Amino acid sequence: MSTENRFNLIEEPWIPIVDVGLVSLRQIFTHSEYRALGGNPVQKIALTKLLLAIAQAAATPADDEAWAELGEDRLAHACLEYLEKWHDRFWLYGDKPFLQIPAICKAAIQSTGAVSADIATGNTTVLLSSQVQRPMSDAELALLLVQLMGFALGGKKTDNSLVLSPGYMGKRNDKGKPATGKPGPCVGFMGFLHNFVLGNSLRQTLWLNLFTHTAIQDLRIYPQGIGTAPWELMPSGEVCEVAVALQQSLMGRLLPMARFCLLADGGLHYSEGVAHPGYKEGVFDPSISINLQGKDPKAIWTDPDRRPWRYLTALLSFISQSRGAGFECFQLKNGLLRARHILPSLGIWSAGLRVSSNAGEQYASGSDDFVESETKLDCSWLGDLWFEQFSREMELLDGLAKALYGATSGYFSAQKVDGANYAGLACNLFWQLGEKQAQVLVDASADV
Q1: Distance between CA 205 and CA 374 in Å, rounded?
Q2: Where does the pLDDT of residue 106 fall: very low under 50, low under 70, confident under 90, or very high at 90 and above?
Q3: What is the pLDDT of residues 256-301, one digit of tens each?
Q4: What is the mean pLDDT of the chain?
Q5: E-only strand ranges, 159-249
Q6: Who contacts 34 (Cβ-Cβ below 8 Å, separation ≥6)?
Q7: Which residues pair with residue 22 across a beta bridge?
Q8: CB neighbourhood size of 266 (10 A)
Q9: Neighbours of 273 (CB within 10 A)
Q10: What's residue 130's pLDDT?
Q11: What gap in Å lies between CA 316 and CA 300, rounded to an integer?
């Protein structure tokens, strides 16, 4: 590992932007015309969380009034000043490498392909040229590091024989041997569906999703509030004071430090890092949707067979005054309720990666895939009337899908053939065709 400061993420282009290409962190907060992040859905989520971490560290407003006064332009200016202040903590290589732990240098080296969900390694079948492992540029390595902080898959690839916090047994199994690595908190067991309010530009999107000190206090799931960004103060071990602070703060959900990494020739030293509590313990990312009302908390998972627009009634149920509490996404509730009185329109962006598990090993296989969708909303609609009408329309569509399933299954049963698979395929095709008209349905629900 080179101790020479090289490749500064504030100066060098490494973040993919739609219609632009790779840009630096400074360019992100300088150019108001940037529309949205590029890359695959997980990269977009990880980068959104990183940019929000910078924004929260730079200019967390006290309350909604301070948030409105801040605006997207003043937020961008504050972020530029913040990046200038912490410029020396954004070197990819050096004595304080970005989001890396030099003390983990004795852990075994994994190839970059082995820790990437979309790259085929070992005896995995290669179906697409994009799945072939190849050398990564510094820009790609920086993006991979940001992903691994929250979206690392669980399994045996982590070298958990190396423990930095003396006496810590969280990386050991019941027999005292190194355990398989836990999934990153942004992934969970099957792959959480993440949701954000979408603005007309990237800067506006960051402003809309910014939490205030009051909002964080009201959530009551982050005892240490916003917290401290990891690059300001990196953990020295799995349960050191800094690691515990990450477990109890919003910053720890934006950049969980779930893996301790250090770039090296041929890959990266790779071990499990900070272990965060899960949604069943009442702590979770504000961008995922959780129902805490039942005996056991439930989450909305990424499902390639059920596109995110079909979850809109659950994701936006807080709009309705007449419906009881159910699934809640704090990220959407925080941004949408205050923005609908300021902006004429906004969007809902949902994305995630479905994963499978076997014997503690997580991977993307079979029908597992990336998922994302975007829905535009006119802010004048957002009330009980629109929500109830849209909910009725979705219930009618569900009824049609069930009728189609029953009719298809019945047809094949009459031929003395098991029709379950055919009925499932028919329903999937029905919803695929319906997705093409999803935005039309959202718009039409306002015409009541």
Answers
A1: 13
A2: very high
A3: 999 999 999 989 999 999 999 999 999 999 999 999 887 889 999 9
A4: 92
A5: 194-198
A6: 17, 18, 20, 23, 27, 28, 201, 202, 203
A7: 16
A8: 9
A9: 28
A10: 60
A11: 13
